[in-house]
Amino acid sequence: MSQTVDRALSILPLLAEGPADLGQVADRLGVHKSTALRLLRTLHEHGLVYRQSDQRYRLGARLIALAQEAMENLDIREIAHPHLVRLNEHCGHTVHLAVYEEDEVLYIDKVESRYPVRMYSRIGKPVAITVAAVAKLLLADLSEHERRALAEKLDYPMYTARSTPNPDAFLRELAKVREQGWATDLGGHEESINCVAAPIRGADGRVVAAMSVSAPNVVVTADELLTLLPLVRRTADDISGEYSGRTSAKNPV
């Protein structure tokens, strides 16, 4: 039975490449055409494959609907939280998770620092969109047209001397972040707070969330915080893999 299931499931990646006829399916599985036909009929009965008028098979609408439903029901916070906790236990600093919704970047999870100095950020609160590292990652993933339109309508408050001053500077920063795949906020929102962030991507490669590690200068310097970037990126990659279904939950870092 397990071999039958394995063979049936092996048909789906083949058809994801494009329609295939019975002979192609049999050849890929290394089985007789009668066996391949029996598997295809079963998948067809469940709506997972569809037989075209030219007698070739393609993925069925039911499979696409199931995939869409599964994606809609994924909770990025639930998946990411254990990873955020492990990262916090490893480094001790504040860890955030943020998403982009309706022209705002919002914190949806936070693991507090173990140090006495705490950050004032709160779950559900919008971030400073023109300077926050998580915001840069989420906005950098927008199309060029969307980035330009957004940059033109934003305000650019000068929280500190390192804040982003205008749309042109913001677009240059987003281009840099888009190219390098990570972001920082080194005193751009609060003079004494530094942050490094990495993107979390879905199965299509698009950024669905961003996570960060933040710490005040009195705990670690900006240079010391930047040494955590590889660990932050690895954690984001682990979350991405689990969220997109490429990997299962991993052991602690």
What does this protein structure show overall?
This protein is an alpha+beta fold. It contains 10 helices and 7 strands. A hairpin with a 5-residue loop joins β1 and β2. α1 packs across α3 and α5 packs antiparallel against α10. The longest helix has 16 residues. The relative contact order is 0.11. The mean pLDDT is 90.
Q: Treating each run of at least 4 consecutive H or I residues as one helix, how many helices?
A: 10
The helix/strand class is alpha+beta
**Strand count:** 7
Order of helices and strands: HHHEEHHEEHHHEEEHH
Percent of residues in beta strands: 15-25%
Q: Going across the biggest sheet, name each strand in turn.
A: 4-3-7-6-5
How large is the radius of gyration? 23 Å
Main sheet makeup? 5 strands, antiparallel
How helical, in percent, are the residues? 40-55%
Unreliably modeled segments: none
The rounded distance between the terminal residues' Cα atoms is: 37 Å
Instruction: Please tell me the overall pLDDT.
Output: 90
Broad shape: elongated
Domain HTH iclR-type: 2-61
InterPro entries: GAF-like_dom_sf (IPR029016), HTH_MetabolicPath_Reg (IPR050707), Tscrpt_reg_IclR_C (IPR014757), Tscrpt_reg_IclR_N (IPR005471), WH-like_DNA-bd_sf (IPR036388), WH_DNA-bd_sf (IPR036390)
Pfam family, one: IclR_C
Domain IclR-ED: 62-245
